[in-house]
Each structure stands twice: as structure tokens, then as C-alpha cells.
């Protein structure tokens, strides 16, 4: 019984960190760098819980639903609050509130779709909410360098990518051997210590791979729709008529 509860503990830790991130952007705290780091550490927890569940053979519908509810808070509400607190607060309320609310709404829609529709093997349909939330939370740290209009547009684009049908690589199936689970608490502790010691710099560094992942799916989708790409693909297929059918995409 205890073994089967271990994955849920990581999920609850994910939720806890999301709530802490929200608290840290209240005016009396005003620590957006630490809040963004809490979202990043929550991403680590989110990546670990499913792998631990598979390693322990403790997957359940309860865990799946708890994970989705936690993700809405940690990667939907918390990043939106971080962005609002550092960049949108001085704007006219209507657009600022709508754009802020739209992000977690699209995240919730994306999670609901994920729970009821089977995704393609090896791919997510739409940008996963942890990646979108990580990009938004770390992007907010650049509010002094980036115009507010660009931050607003970026928030809208990330919201759209979550509910889009663009395919993104799925790394969640990369499992953890059962005899290596003991390493996970060490990794988590190291991540927490680094996050607390270097919240500002580490968050900005992590922003780079996250935004590249978000742009990767967008680029692949655009490439598939370009007429030139389609013509090139047809020409290659025409030059190789002897190839068996299973080799064609």
C-alpha cells in the first residue's frame, strides 16, 4: 500500500510547489525568481511521478487525475500569476486579466483532452502544460528586457500551442529501473538546493531548452505545411519507386 502511494507523494509535492510559487508573487513577498524556480522544480516532480509509478507498477486512475489537477495549478495558474505580477499589473485590467486567465484555461482544456483522447505513440498532441508553464514562468524574469506587448503575445502563443494539434516529442516513456529509484530523492534534493541558491540565473538558463522545445513542434508543423517541402517529398518518393510501402511516411 505504501509503495503504491509513493508516486502520489511526488504529485502532491508538485502541487505544493505550485501553491508556494503563487504565494511568492504576492506583493508582500515579491520574489518572482524564486517563484519561477518553484515551477521548474515542480516540473521535475511531474516528470518523476509517472516514471516512479511505472517502475513500481503503481499506475492508477486516481494518480492520473491527481496529476492533472496538480498540473493546472503548478503549470497553469502559477506561471500566469508570475507573469501578471511582474509584467501585466500596470496595464488596463480587461486585457491583462483576460490574457492571464486564458493561459490556465487553455492548460485545463489541454489536460482534459489528454485524459480522454489517446495521443500518438512517442508524441504529445499540443504543447504539454509543464513545458508551457515553464516557458512562461521563466520568460517573466526577462520583463525588464522584453516589451510588455511581446510578453502578452508570447502568453497568447503559448496558450494556443497547448490546445493546438501540433505534435511534440514525448519523453515520458523513458523509464527508470526499479533498482535506481533510490537516486531520485538525491536528484530532487540537489535540484531544490541549486534552485534556492541560484534562483535567478538557473531559471534563465533553463528557459533556453524549454523555449527551444516549444519552438521545435511549431517549426516541424510549419515545415510539413510548406509547399516546397511537400514537392520535395513527392520527388523523393517518385525517384524511389522500388522502395516498399512501409518506408513511406
TrEMBL record:
One of its Pfam families is CDP-OH_P_transf
Instruction: List the PROSITE patterns hit by this protein, alphabetically.
Output: CDP_ALCOHOL_P_TRANSF
Membrane topology of this protein: Multi-pass membrane protein
Q: Where is the signal peptide?
A: none
> Which InterPro entries does this chain map to?
CDP-alcohol_PTase-I, CDP-diaglyc--ser_O-PTrfase, CDP-OH_P_trans, CDP-OH_PTrfase_TM_dom, CDP_ALCOHOL_P_TRANSF_CS
Q: What class of enzyme is it?
A: transferase
EC number assigned by the record: 2.7.8.8
For this entry, the protein name equals CDP-diacylglycerol--serine O-phosphatidyltransferase
Keywords on record: Lipid biosynthesis, Lipid metabolism, Membrane, Phospholipid biosynthesis, Phospholipid metabolism, Transferase, Transmembrane, Transmembrane helix
What residues form the membrane-spanning segments? 7-26, 94-112, 124-142, 148-168, 180-199, 205-222
Amino acid at each position: 500500500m505504501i509503495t503504491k502511494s509513493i508516486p502520489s507523494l511526488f504529485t502532491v509535492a508538485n502541487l505544493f510547489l505550485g501553491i508556494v510559487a503563487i504565494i511568492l508573487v504576492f506583493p508582500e513577498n515579491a520574489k518572482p525568481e524564486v517563484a519561477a524556480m518553484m515551477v521548474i522544480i515542480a516540473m521535475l516532480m511531474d516528470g518523476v511521478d509517472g516514471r516512479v509509478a511505472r517502475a513500481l507498477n503503481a499506475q492508477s486512475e486516481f494518480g492520473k487525475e491527481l496529476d492533472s489537477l496538480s498540473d493546472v495549478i503548478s503549470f497553469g495558474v502559477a506561471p500566469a500569476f508570475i507573469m501578471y505580477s511582474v509584467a501585466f499589473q500596470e496595464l488596463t485590467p480587461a486585457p491583462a486579466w483576460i490574457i492571464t486567465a486564458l493561459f490556465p484555461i487553455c492548460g485545463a482544456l489541454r489536460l482534459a483532452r489528454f485524459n480522454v483522447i489517446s495521443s500518438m505513440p512517442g508524441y504529445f498532441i499540443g504543447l504539454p502544460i509543464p513545458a508551457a508553464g515553464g516557458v512562461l514562468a521563466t520568460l517573466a524574469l526577462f520583463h525588464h528586457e522584453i516589451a510588455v506587448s511581446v510578453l502578452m503575445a508570447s502568453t497568447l502563443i503559448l496558450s494556443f500551442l497547448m490546445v493546438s494539434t501540433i505534435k511534440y516529442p514525448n519523453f515520458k516513456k523513458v523509464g527508470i529501473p526499479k533498482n535506481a529509484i533510490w537516486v531520485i530523492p538525491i536528484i530532487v534534493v540537489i535540484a531544490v538546493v541549486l534552485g534556492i541558491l541560484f534562483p535567478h540565473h538557473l531559471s534563465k538558463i533553463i528557459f533556453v531548452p524549454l523555449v527551444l522545445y516549444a519552438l521545435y513542434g511549431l517549426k516541424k508543423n510549419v515545415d510539413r505545411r510548406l509547399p516546397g517541402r511537400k514537392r520535395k517529398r513527392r520527388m523523393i518518393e517518385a525517384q524511389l519507386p522500388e522502395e516498399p510501402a512501409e518506408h513511406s511516411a
